[in-house]
Design a protein that fits this description.
- The chain is of the alpha+beta class.
- The protein has a single domain (5-149), classed as Thiol Ester Dehydrase, Chain A, CATH 3.10.129.
- It has three helices and six strands; from the N terminus they run βααβββββα.
- The chain has helices at 24-39, 43-48, 141-149; strands spanning 5-9, 64-75, 87-96, 100-108, 120-130, 135-136.
- A hairpin with a 3-residue loop joins strand 3 (87-96) and strand 4 (100-108).
- The longest helix has 16 residues, at 24-39.
- It is globular.
- GO terms for molecular function: hydrolase activity.
- It holds the Pfam family 4HBT_2.
- Keywords: Hydrolase.
- It comes from Marihabitans asiaticum.
- This is Acyl-CoA thioester hydrolase.
């Protein structure tokens, strides 16, 4: 397993639904915020007045952005709201293709402890997009080397209902 990016995302009271647990849409927000921090804000951090942290996609040319092409999410355990207790999100790269890669994610709650099983696992397919040509951008050697530093096994996702269990 390569490097793993780990970040804490603060839980908010508005994240809970009427059942008292974190709403599935808010779990996606936690994943999105963690992914933005994993990729890095670059110059946007300066514009927002927040400290710049190194990011996975810092070496992309200015005209290249990223788009989420697909996401699969499995909810494995209830995520209850606990005031002042952040979610711990772990992220790494599961696959590097020609113009896309996958981000593997786990959300852990404080109640599960440091070594506990994740409450949520997800896989996001990310496409690198050249805004100047309006087409996918072929991953160059510099960006591939950074992505490969974070390369690890895909998260275990449940089979889809139409898939046989041994597929």
């Amino acid at each position: 397993m390569g490097e793993v990016h780990e970040v804490q995302i603060q839980a908010r009271l508005r994240d809970i639904n009427t059942g008292g647990h974190v709403d599935n849409v808010e779990a996606m927000r936690v994943l999105d915020e963690a992914r933005i921090r994993f990729f890095g804000l670059g110059r946007r951090a300066d514009q927002l007045g927040i400290p710049r942290e190194p990011g996975l996609l810092d070496d992309l040319p200015d005209h290249v952005g990223n788009l989420v092409g697909a996401q699969r999410v499995d909810y494995l355990a209830e995520m209850r709201f606990a005031p002042i207790q952040p979610f711990r999100v772990r992220m790494w790269v599961g696959h590097v293709g020609t113009s896309s890669f996958t981000v593997e994610s786990e959300i852990h709650t404080t109640a599960q402890g440091e070594g506990g099983e994740p409450a949520v696992v997800a896989e996001s397919s990310v496409i690198l997009w050249d805004r100047s040509s309006d087409a996918t951008w072929r991953i160059d050697d510099t960006v591939r080397a950074v992505l490969t530093r974070y390369l690890g096994e895909p998260v275990p996702l449940r089979p889809r209902p139409s898939q046989p269990m041994d597929a």
